[in-house]
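Appendix B. Raw example, untouched.
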Amino acid sequence: MRDMVSELQICYLGLQPYAPIHTKMRKFTNQRTAETADEFWCLQHHAVFTLGANADEQHIISKSKIPIVQSDRGGQVTFHGPGQVIIYLLINLRRKSMGIKQLVQHIEQSVVDLLGSYQIMAEARADAHGVYVGDAKIASLGLRVSGGCSYHGVALNVDMDMGPFAQINPCGFPGLAVTQLKEHGVESSCQQIHTELTMQLCKHLHYKSSNIITNVH
């Protein structure tokens, strides 16, 4: 008998435009059944600003050639670009008997533990979801739950052009500092960080290694 609670497919998708992936996430979530295995989508995005479902566009301070895309995740405005590790978590939370708050805590702790393995002290904040090194945000979360299933996920800044963050109030907080792993002496590739963060997420979300299938597209 299949252990659906701990079954997982990990898909490495490379560098992708935002809008088609967003559409595919929604389609996957809408069409999945009680027997559909959970999936992690590991990727990077071409440069894009995304707005959460209830985001205020006034948090975009200045516009440029970087496209602005409306999303249905939680949160305000953020920037995605090459050099940022993204993992979208398509999880049947109902099947896992897990609430959205628990999922957020597990994701944040996974990032904190990953950074700890590089001797970087980081923390999550109850008043502003995400992971911070000192006063600077290094990872952002944005999730949506539909029919008891989650999609969207976590973005961790690794080695990217940070300039576009100056065009927005990151996550709706004016003056919020933003940092990345490169600024803390980490030279690991995005591929390596994807692998390490995936391992942390699997540990905290209780996926068994024997039930994990990895696909590279």
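End of appendix B.
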